[in-house]
Amino acid sequence: MVTAWTRGVPFTVAEVRLMSEAADTPRFSQDRKRWATSADRLADRCYREHFDVGDADLYDLEALVDAVHDRDAGYRTHQLLDYGGLDRLVDCGDRHVHIAQRWRPVAGGDDLSLRTDNGVPGREAELRKWRTAHEGRGYYPDVIAFGHYEGTLEAFRWFALLDTETVLAALSADRLDPPEHATGDGTAAVYVPVADLRRIGAVIREWERLIAPDSEGGWDG
Q1: Residue 155 CB neighbours (<10 A)
Q2: DSSP characters over 82-97
Q3: How far is 156 from 186, CA to CA, in rounded Å?
Q4: Rounded to 10 degrees, what is the CA torsion of 116, 129, 21, 96?
Q5: First to last CA, the chain
Q6: What is the rounded CA–CA span in Å between residue 157 and residue 171?
Q7: Contacts of 145 (CB under 8 A, 6+ apart)
Q8: Contact 170, 103 (CB under 8 A)
């Protein structure tokens, strides 16, 4: 059986397609949805270009949770999103790439933020889950898509695909030692400078100044 996952909980590609076709209810507020949709559209352009795939080969798994009516399949979808931090799946034919998406507003800074405390007692944040999975050969995304997004221009100032394995291995070997910063809402995160991501060889590919599609469907920039 061909499955959509190389690690963790399996789905057949057919299951993913059926769930994708059923998805019709956004989980975000409308403002956040518009912001995310614009950023996701640009990211999908990069995925198509880098992995040489079409629209039909990209799956938005964030939208699938509310669309899954089968209890078992719904639980497995929730596991992947909640525990694995998966946002996109790219079907490359001979392999499937799992992507976690992280967008930062340009005004919010340039560093990659990875949450270490989500403010909920007894519930691990994403980086701790990924590090535990990495050390125990569990599930974590193959790629982190990271972009500096300018909402008023609907453009990424900078966008990159990062190798998650390289980031986690560097953290384990102390080749990365980013400081942890707490916020007033009980959450905390580490912030990794782009220069450090380049230094450890985590950047698979990077783009600059990606402009959203114009009214005729073309691209500028």
Answers
A1: 22
A2: HHH---EEEE-SS-EE
A3: 29
A4: 120
A5: 42
A6: 27
A7: 43, 46, 47, 87, 88, 99, 100, 101, 102, 159, 160, 161, 162
A8: no
Instruction: Tokens 């909980």: give the residue.
Output: 9
Q: What is the pLDDT of residue 175?
A: 96
Q: Token digits for 101?
A: 């998406």
- CA 46, CA 89: separation in Å to the nearest integer? 13
Q: 125 forms bridges with which residues in the sheet?
A: none
Helix residue ranges per DSSP H, 23-84: 30-51, 71-84
Owner of token pair 């009214």: 215
Which residues sit opposite 207 in a β-bridge?
A: 159
* Cα 135 to chain centroid, rounded: 20
Q: For the chain of 221 residues, list the mean pLDDT of each consecutive stretch of 10.
A: 40 46 43 69 92 92 59 56 74 92 83 91 86 86 92 83 97 93 88 96 90 45 39
Q: Which tokens in the block code for residue 34? A: 């518009």
Tokens matching residue 5: 């996952």
Return the biggest CA–CA distance within the chain.
50
Q: How far apart are CA 7 and CA 142, in angstroms?
A: 9
How far apart, in Å, are the Cα atoms of 86 and each of 2, 115, 143?
19, 15, 9
Matching residue, tokens 């992280």: 102
CB-based contacts of 31, cutoff 8 Å, min separation 6: none
Q: How far is 99 from 16, CA to CA, in rounded Å? A: 15
Cut 0.85: pTM above it:
no
Amino acid at 129: K
Q: Quote the pLDDT of residue 76.
A: 58
